[in-house]
């Protein structure tokens, strides 16, 4: 699914209005019904204080208020700056609400604040949505601060008021919601870690915008979903043999960090690679051979770390390097040798990235379409500190296209930047994956997909998606606290087989 900016979303509303056709007020009613249904399911016994400005987001709030009142749910509506310019659909919804007997509508003008809400009431923030074009200030800002000062739960409609959908919002007044009910698709601002304190849990509600619009519009951002995975996935031929699925080499481990080698080797085996070899320090051979007997093992002449590869590399269809290797000068030298002698894409993680950040010119030696998998700290070591998350994804896109590599910026919504200038946000995974070794699993998985002949972008997108899916399956069994990285390996499944 493509991600759209605020003006494209406005265009999508208009497209649907003409294409379906449906009137703008009926589309607002459909959006309000979707909110009402969600709210009733989640909070069946609460009362609601609904705050509205006078645009269409406020119009949504008024329609939600009416729909809740018709179900005999207690509702108070506060209209902020009621004298301000009102949208047509806001005005229509205000008339409809006033026609309901007992409607409790309070107009707030500068300096008048509402009484503190009942402690069990839920606040609905329908002040401003995607129409925001400047920071909130003045009385509206004071109302935002008033709402944020309450201990009540807050549900934001479409966007937390004050949060920009496409750019960094800075430190202006912004609603801090527990839940955001956003219409039809994620907005960029609802994917950024720096905004997490504002949007809380995001729920995307289907309001029936015409899918045909998406084929007419360009976007550099996309979400990784099952349909994208399915578009890349290659089914296995009945007569296939292991030679058809590549030979992956995992270079990993050092004394005390052999677990990283085990996890990435096992994940590589489960990716579907035909053959997997692990290159590990001499003393690690028994560990690999007993924990991953399906893999072959090459031992380093050094017992405790990776220093030398004395066999040709070109017979390997993909190489993954870095988990648990350490950054000893001998390991650094080997890495440089690989950059100079191997021309196919590499997968680089963990210590391989730390080595690169100490030898930045080597970034230019990376074979085209190599994949690097930094978490935000590794990313800053490589490409400098970024002032916010929006800047970080822009830098990732610039560097991916400049260096002709894929950058996987790991996190809750892992971001994949491709050299073609496209950015993908992953939709799978959970905070249970914040545990040592999860990244090693990802490295092995992506290396194995690359070895099978998937393009680098496909291997990156599929690997990140599958990795998160395995995390979600592990969390369903063990819970987020008890799950460990080895569970990700056990729970790896290709969705097409289910
Ligand atoms: N048919 C449609 O267009 C639909 C629109 N919907 C709702 O409409 C919203 C967008 O509505 P609008 O475009 O009216 O915009 P908003 O209601 O988000 O904002 C209202 C107006 O406030 C002004 N404004 C901008 N920044 C401000 C600030 N910092 N402080 C005070 N005022 C500011 C702008 O002139 C803006 O148009 C969506 O977020 C969604 O909630 C939904 O009802 C779905 C259907
Ligand atoms: N809160 C989270 N939500 C979703 N995924 C997460 C979360 N925390 C970590 N992960 C995932 O787990 C992996 C952690 O990798 P990394 O930071 O390299 O850890 P390690 O080096 O311990 O393996 C990444 O793929 C990341 O996206
Ligand atoms: K809002």
Automatic annotation (TrEMBL):
Its cofactor is K(+); Mg(2+). Its EC number is 4.2.1.136, 5.1.99.6. This is Bifunctional NAD(P)H-hydrate repair enzyme. In the N-terminal section; belongs to the NnrE/AIBP family. SUPFAM superfamilies: Ribokinase-like, YjeF N-terminal domain-like. Residues 9-215 form the YjeF N-terminal domain. It catalyses: (6S)-NADPHX + ADP = AMP + phosphate + NADPH + H(+); (6S)-NADHX + ADP = AMP + phosphate + NADH + H(+); (6R)-NADPHX = (6S)-NADPHX; (6R)-NADHX = (6S)-NADHX. InterPro entries: Carbohydrate_kinase_pred_CS, CARKD, Nnr, Ribokinase-like, YjeF_N_dom, YjeF_N_dom_sf. Binds 1 potassium ion per subunit. Homotetramer. NCBIfam families: yjeF_cterm, yjeF_nterm. AMP binds at residues 410-414, 439. Pfam families: Carb_kinase (PF01256), YjeF_N (PF03853). K(+) binds at residues 57, 125, 161. Keywords: ATP-binding, Isomerase, Lyase, Metal-binding, Multifunctional enzyme, NAD, NADP, Nucleotide-binding, Potassium. The gene is nnrE. (6S)-NADPHX binds at residues 56-60, 129-135, 158, 260, 324, 375, 440. Bifunctional enzyme that catalyzes the epimerization of the S- and R-forms of NAD(P)HX and the dehydration of the S-form of NAD(P)HX at the expense of ADP, which is converted to AMP. This allows the repair of both epimers of NAD(P)HX, a damaged form of NAD(P)H that is a result of enzymatic or heat-dependent hydration. Residues 225-498 form the YjeF C-terminal domain.
